[in-house]
Records
---
Amino acid sequence: MTDAKKPMAEANRISSMLNAVLGAERFPVKVDDLALEYSRQCFADSPIDKVQGEDLDGFDGLLKANKTRSKWLILYNSATHSEGRKRFTIAHEFGHYILHRHQQDLFECGDGDIETGDNNERDIEAESDLFASTLLMPLDDFRRQVDGQQISFDLLGHCADRYGVSLAAAALRWIEVAPKRAVLVASRDDHMLWAKSNMAALKSGAYFATRRNTIELSRDALAHSYSAVDMVDNRTGRAQSWFSREPSGMPITEMTRAAGQYDYTLTLLLMPDAEWQRPQHDDEETEEDTFDRFVRNGQYPVR
Ligand SMILES: [Zn+2]
């Protein structure tokens, strides 16, 4: 299991320094300048020498040392149109530099790696994602943006703008601090691309094992094409239509928003606390796997 403390501690250390130098209104983080400057000052014998866009076939980003390991290069895919995704990718590669550069000389990162890599690779990917989200969206500032406010995709859009990240990245950050059970689902063509539950939801068994199974959206789902005629993006219904083990009286609030340049749909599911904790279930995916993945955290499949 990954120790989640180190990526967060390293990112928070850098955030404290930025707060001291730039003050609280310093977002979005200029992560390319930061990576250059920070590595030059702290690791002068092997700094990050360059951060640049390039046509990376099949990768989102890359971190590479020169032969003598005296300098490092970060590349991000210049074909990516989303500034948020670029920023997250650079922060992710900076994370590899801070956390893992003594383990490897080359890191090639893309969505595919997260799905197909072995456990070790997945762990360092998750650590770098956690570093990136912590660096780009520090929790204290994030809480100031959302505390006491009704959650909506408009509010999450405000956060995405403030931090210069994708709507999905902001929403994933929000479910971590959500005061109730929350699940974020990305879907396309009525099938889930990925889904992530916060700890409260996970503990109650409200999660989707999208990594191992192809899961079709319920016909009741707002994001299902069958529902598209309804023209609403927010409603409260029965939790059972999403999670069959929920009691019949359990409500669920469902919000949807097109994301990723309308390439896919995000659905945010909110439920009150469960009346029980960790029920038995018979899903193919073991609970340990899921917990492990949650604790590794910050596994943002969309950047
Ligand atoms: Zn990576």
---
Amino acid sequence: MDHEAEGRGLWSKVLDLVYPSVCHGCGDGVAGNRSLCGACHDELPSLREPFCRSCGEEFEGRIDGSFECPNCRDLDFSFAFARPALPNHPVVLEMIHELKYGRRIEIAAELGRLAGRAFADDPRLAVALSEQWPLVPVPLHRRRRLWRYFNQAEEISRSLGAATGLPLCRALLRTRSTSSQTRLSRAQRLKNLKGAFSLSKSGAAFAAAKPAGAVVVDDVFTTGATTDECARLLRRSGVQKVVVVTVMRG
Ligand SMILES: [Zn+2]
Ligand SMILES: [Zn+2]
């Protein structure tokens, strides 16, 4: 290969990095700000009944009426419920990893649209739409934000806001940098998170008005320790009801 062709090859790789052009599901080319082609997008399963009304964990088999999974039965969350839009799915998980660790901010647009399915599918979220509850992204500590350039939950919220018409409120700050939570048990996570958040200026003004509700937004719902801590602070500060919406159930 001559130098020019090699250069072009390299340049097209750079362009591919800057402008996403392939579907994360099948590798086909996609247009504009999409990260999935139409077929792969439509194939991704939404969360299906029956699922836990607290954490969105899908349950195999038949259950009449709403139920809480054995794990949630023993927990007293500060949020009313968490509603992942999708069950755990490898394509979505890969997109979330690319967004966070590959710093591919453009993927947030697709993930925010996917999160919008929660509002379309779940009647419990109708009140958030009619009363215009703000979307409150789970905050990142300044240091991690500096590394990533952006907060993925905030970028997802932005796209989710465009899909639902709900306003964005950056109500929370992460005041303490917490080590990665992925290897910690639930009890360790809770201890790790104590006092890790505070209200921003706009958050304090929002909560002081004793608003009816807020929607905490994150990429994945895993143990719920982080979103619960966010909900606890919002509730304690005056927000009457907090619900959680995530793209996916971890
Ligand atoms: Zn595809
Ligand atoms: Zn549950």
---
Amino acid sequence: MIGISKLSLGAGEEEAVLRVVRSGQLAMGLETQDAETEFSKRLGGVECIAVSNGTVAITLALAAMGVGPGDEVITTSFSFIGTVEPIIQLGATPIFADVDLRSANIGVDGIEALITSRTKVILPVHLYGRPVDLAAIRAIASKYNLAVLEDACQAIGASDANTGGIGSSGTAVFSFYGSKNIACGEGGLVTTDDRQLAERVRLLRSHGSIETYRHALVGYNARMTDLQAAILRIQLESLDRVTAGRRSNAAYYHESIHNDALFLPPGDDVTSVSCFHQFTLRLRSKADRDDLQAWTTEHEVETRAYYPYALSSHPVIEDLGLGARCDNADALSNVVLSIPVRESLSDDERKHVADVISGWEPSNS
Ligand SMILES: Cc1ncc(COP(=O)(O)O)c(C=O)c1O
């Protein structure tokens, strides 16, 4: 089976883990600081705060922005649940914007109508590694004096022609969970060009501690361990190669997959240079999606629906009375299917994937 995700770990990571084990310092040592410095260098000098995972990175960033009970956060209706849990856990209310069918990203045109006197933050997601139109979202935010927090958990290595590399300006969060383009098992990063915000995130990350056993606010234990950081530093060295490999596979699919029964994801445009965390097909119906998935499984290609439910229609969201009608997100949840695009695919493997998708005919047409 040609899998969707496969961790690439080698001698460098092995060596790094041994180095940490031998140092006797598994947490709060130099590895985490070095990882932060290296990410900062890569992202043009922004503040970088390494944390235990991407979900907690969102929590800390929102908390540092002052989000709490009574506030509203406008976000996409189509993402992983980790985008929205922090909003609810902080006592605020997620307001779901419908998505654009073609990109599956938040529909920028629908955001303004959702803004109220309670809105504090716009939280877009660069889904599948494809950046949203940040310049447009930032323009709306500044018109209404709102903060923007980018969920870039899937978008390390992506960029935007107007604003540069994702994470190099504004405030964003990344995830380094095992399935991400670069990974350390569990890990997250907050990046920001706002020094004061960075200081608040640092405080919140470690129990609100201002000096040893002296605490200025109620924080979290959200630190990254040195084991995670040491692996991540090696993974960061491979980011350009990984991104180029994924983009090359995506370009190959754009050229080589020919099938009128499905739509390929958009390629680059001026506001969006994707790192292709996923290469996601769009089918005409749920029956077709299920049919194609059965076909790919039969032909030893793993495919997955990211995501089979819209955020706005999960039982937990409906039970909390937070559900919203988001027709495009509901429609997409029935018709999306991601195929392997990872950089470690061999030429034969990616040709096989393209041939299998091109050779599929809907059985119910
Ligand atoms: C879009 C999105 N948001 C948030 C998260 C949460 O990140 P983590 O799993 O590191 O907590 C993920 C990844 O899993 C994600 O893909």
